[in-house]
Amino acid sequence: MDAFTIHGGAPLSGRVRVNGSKNAALPILAAALLTDEPVTIRDVPRLADISNMLRLLERLGCTIDEHESNGMRGLTIDVEDESDNTAPYDVVRTMRASVCVLGPLLARRGMARVSLPGGCAIGDRPIDLHLRGLEALGARITLEGGDVVARTPPTGRLIGKRLFLGGANGPTVLGTANIMCAATLAKGTTIIEGAACEPEVVDLAKLLNAMGAQVMGAGTPRITVEGVERLHGATHTVIPDRIEAGTFLIAAGITNGKVTLENCPSDALVATLDQLERVGVHVMALPGRTEDPMRETVEVQCERRLKPTIVTTQPHPGFPTDLQAQMMALLCVADGNSVITERIFEQRFLHVAELGRMGANLFHQGPTVVVSGVRELIGAPVMASDLRASACLIIAGLAARGQTTVRRVYHLDRGYESMEKRLNSLGALIERVDEKQLVEI
Ligand code: EPU
User: Fold this and answer.
1) So where are the chain's domains?
2) Atom of ligand 1 at shortest range from CA of 200
3) In angstroms, what is the span from residue 322 Cα to ligand 1's centroid?
4) pLDDT, position 69
5) 128: Cβ below 6 Å to ligand 1?
6) Which CATH number applies to 22-237?
């Protein structure tokens, strides 16, 4: 297993491009199962989660052709054999987003067998809402040997319906993606009430419409899908990754750096930019090649002393849970007390104890952490427990005095492409090493 050693204290400076979004690409790749014509997806990041999804698509009869243009990775997915309907446990346990294939497989092949995802480091992550939504469209669902087995009605087609998808913790992003995909080939009209409004849902709807679907209202809590008989091939470029962009902005902020981000989806980061402004991290749009607010060039600069703030994670357009851990690292060195409340995954706090090892002053109770800012963090050996917690610890390490060692960075590799190389190109001092080579301090 790999680890990072980080020598903290170097302010980040320079220019970096935000990659295509992992969380947009995953359901988009799965949507290629809805047609037997080739679907080409551009700007797909090179990540462990994406490789797992491609492996799953291959098992489901797809061929995948990889190409490159303008430095962006493109993938063409072509379904050649539609006889297998199973997403087995050995894939699902490595990547929960495998559940994205459920809706497309069911709608196109009439049946899907997807292993039920188990527990997760960031808390319980049930898929009950996905299943209720599919049942509302007429699917018959059973649990067999740890697998969810879903079948269309005997006609072979799902049936459009008005349904409510919200749950106790708000809307579900991948649940909305699954139901939206399933509804594209259903008979009649589906109205999803309580739909997730995340930009990744909007991006998926764009691809589906390019494939001939009729999806309206994506990005609002009510999505209407007029079912069609069949979908065709299409080409689509994935939106930039708002969480990666936010991670770079926070990393620049904590090191007192000056960084230019290209391809920054500012329009999808309004709550994050608002919070950063409050703490003294200023993000300004620069005149760029495009007027697209999802692909801006921005410059980030920050004040010497950061101010504290109150952050509550919420569904989009609120502050994203996927930046909560990184924001916590930043607030550890702000001048005063901050309060962070996690409303999406209430147990997503495994980074708290690790930040404590670096001298952070944190009080955790229930879904809330009070962050009492300290003058500096101190490098220490720490352990990454999930994807965003790893990003948090790396950000903390960039600002800490001395050396930080972050173990288990395979979590990071699931969601950030070559992060150490890209941070080093901005002046960070990070080395990827084999954990076995580490001599504990
Ligand atoms: N929930 C249910 N029942 C369900 C589905 C969800 O109760 O059937 C609950 C969840 O437990 C959670 C809330 O609803 O409390 C929202 O979960 P959601 O379904 O929206 O999460 P997800 O779709 O499984 C995606 C992202 C996550 C991100 C969440 C929230 C992907 C591949 N994953 O997960 O990303 O945190 O939305 O925005 O898109 C990450 O990238 O690090 C990550 C975890």
Assistant:
1) 2-19+240-437, 22-237
2) 39
3) 10
4) 83
5) yes
6) 3.65.10.10
380 Cα to the center of ligand 1, angstroms: 31
Given this chain, do its domains 2-19+240-437 and 22-237 carry the same CATH topology? yes
Pick the CATH number of 2-19+240-437 from 3.30.110.70, 1.10.3720.10, 3.65.10.10, 3.40.640.10: 3.65.10.10
- pTM of this structure: 0.97
Active site residues: 120
- pLDDT tens digits for range 41-94: 999 999 999 999 999 999 999 999 999 988 899 999 999 999 999 998 888 888
First to last CA, the chain: 19
Tokens for 319?
């502050």
Which residue has a Cα nearest atom 40 of ligand 1? 322
The amino acid present at 238, given as its one-letter code, is: V
C-alpha 379/C-alpha 342 separation (Å) is 26
Q: How far is the CA of 349 from the centre of ligand 1 (A)?
A: 15
Which residue from 173, 181, 243 has its CB within 8 A of the most atoms of ligand 1, so it is best to mutate? 173
- What is the pLDDT averaged over residues 163-169? 94
Going by C-alpha positions, the residue among 119, 121, 103 that lies closest to residue 111 is: 103
In angstroms, rounded to a whole number, what is the distance separating the alpha carbons of residues 101 and 98? 6
Does the pLDDT at position 440 exceed 70?
Answer: no
